[in-house]
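Lab notebook page, bench 4
Experiment: in silico fold of construct C2
Operator: M.H.
Input chain length: 207 residues
Purpose: comparison with the prior construct
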Amino acid sequence: MKKAAGLLFIVLAGARLGIAAELPNFYIHTGISRPVTPAEFKDNYRTGVNVGVAVGKQLMNFLEGDFYLVYHGTTFDPNNYRSTFDPDTRDLYSIEGGSTHTLGAMIRARWIMPSPEESRVQSYVYLGGGLVHHSTGDVDVLGPAVDGSQDFSEPGGSDTVPGLCGGIGFEYHVESTVLFLELGVFSAFTEGDATMLLPLKFGIAIK
């Protein structure tokens, strides 16, 4: 209940941030996300995709605040998982499932680096925090035994936890439209080791 209330607070605060700006900045992006930690996440999951939107308000010449919603999805790598089995029989196993879904709602601050007034390129760093919902699907393994004695399943799970994001970005301005590229870190403080991804994002901003 406390986690749901916290998520609602972040959504309402982000909505207020967007409404408060007479002409809010709007961002939309897609890209790729590479699993980093924990080790089983890094080893058994492929590089996935991300999509996100943000609504921001210019607070000062060098500072902007925004409300950010992002989704990261990765798929399970059965070949790498299978490599831990007995070499003589591992090719006989069928493995399915295990995809992950990560949704984050965050408040971010962007510090804009000084640049020549006539320059079309602008760099910045960003840092944010909020709540993350992370879920992992079951991994179902069918073994070669006809009687099913070698079949097993590793259950997935889901949780809503605090999270952080941060990174660097570059904007290229074309009149009222801005193209941007970001490289960062996205982390959810899941039980045990934090679940961390390295996202690379390409997007469009309207300012």
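Observations: The mean pLDDT is 85. The longest strand covers residues 157-174.
Next step: discuss at group meeting.
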